[in-house]
Amino acid sequence: MPTERESTPPPPGDSTAPAAYPASVDALIAEFARLPGIGRRSAERMAHHVLKSTAEDAMRLADAIAQVKRSVRHCPVCMNFADADLCRICADPRRDRSLVLVVEQPRDLIALEATAMYRGLYHVLLGRMNPLEGIGARDITLARLLQRLDHPENNPGAEPVREVILGLNPTLEGDGTALFIAQELKARKVKVSRLARGLPSGGQIELANRGVLGDAIEGRRGL
Ligand SMILES: [Zn+2]
Questions:
Q1: How much is the pTM?
Q2: pLDDT category, 17, cuts 50, 70, 90?
């Protein structure tokens, strides 16, 4: 039974009034609105774009999403995104496989790759430690990195890792994680360095410009 309130049409121009969308359009708007940085208004504009698109164009978008979820997984060596056995970086024999740059997230790797100044491999931690939130060493992919160091057969080309460059974000948690990893590496025969501090403290690698990142790679310092 509809209540009095539901059966009364909202006054015209009332911004809180529900829009008269079919349920399927409402569902699409709700999905777009869940995307990062997308508010209700942008979500509506995106939905209108889909509604105006040809069926072909709209299905290409839907297929692209489905394809990514079907085929992309984490590279078993470095945890970067991959749609083959290894990611493109680990699979590339021209990369220097004795160098491993450790980052928090795949998007940091993307930003560093855009500088075209680094020719080694990566290791993606998929997070950073944050003791206050109960996120410890077991919640990042550190154990896999240590496996790579201790058992070179796990590194592409079975090449031993000679240098580990810590490329965590210069935040409290990033610094704490880097320190922890540096301690873990101390007993191992591997050179440990850190990206130079061209990066502003509290800044994010993924947002830094290419020049700054390039300098940070070139000017890395031993720990
Ligand atoms: Zn990889």
A1: 0.77
A2: low
